[in-house]
């Protein structure tokens, strides 16, 4: 994991915005869905395909209306 992601992840953990299971405990605004996914997953990630609704729909499908 790049050091910049580690630093951000550690900040969010210390501020208790992310729990020990890397789940958000509060709303947090990121500059992109990919940055949010990368922080949680610990690797580069495409947030538009990684983030899914409870029904399994990707963020990309929700954004484009292809539900």
Task: Describe this entry's structure for a reader.
The protein has 67 residues and is an all-alpha fold. Helices cover 46% and strands 0% of the residues. It is built from four helices and no strands. The chain is globular.
Identify the quaternary structure here: single chain
- Give the amount of beta strand, in percent: under 5%
Shape type:
globular
Helix content: 40-55%
Biggest beta sheet summary: none
Give the strand tally: 0
> Mean pLDDT, rounded to whole units?
92
Radius of gyration: 13 Å
| Count of helical stretches | 4
Q: What structural category characterises the helix and strand content? A: mainly alpha
Q: What are the segments in which pLDDT stays under 50 over at least 5 consecutive residues?
A: none
Distance between the termini: 32 Å
Following the backbone from N to C, one meets helices and strands in this order, namely HHHH
């Amino acid at each position: 994991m790049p050091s910049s992601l580690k630093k951000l992840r550690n900040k969010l953990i210390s501020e208790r915005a992310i729990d020990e299971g890397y789940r958000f405990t509060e709303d947090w605004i990121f500059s992109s869905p990919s940055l949010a996914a990368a922080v949680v997953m610990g690797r580069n990630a495409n947030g538009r395909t990684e983030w899914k609704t409870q029904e399994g729909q990707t963020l990309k499908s929700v954004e484009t209306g292809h539900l």
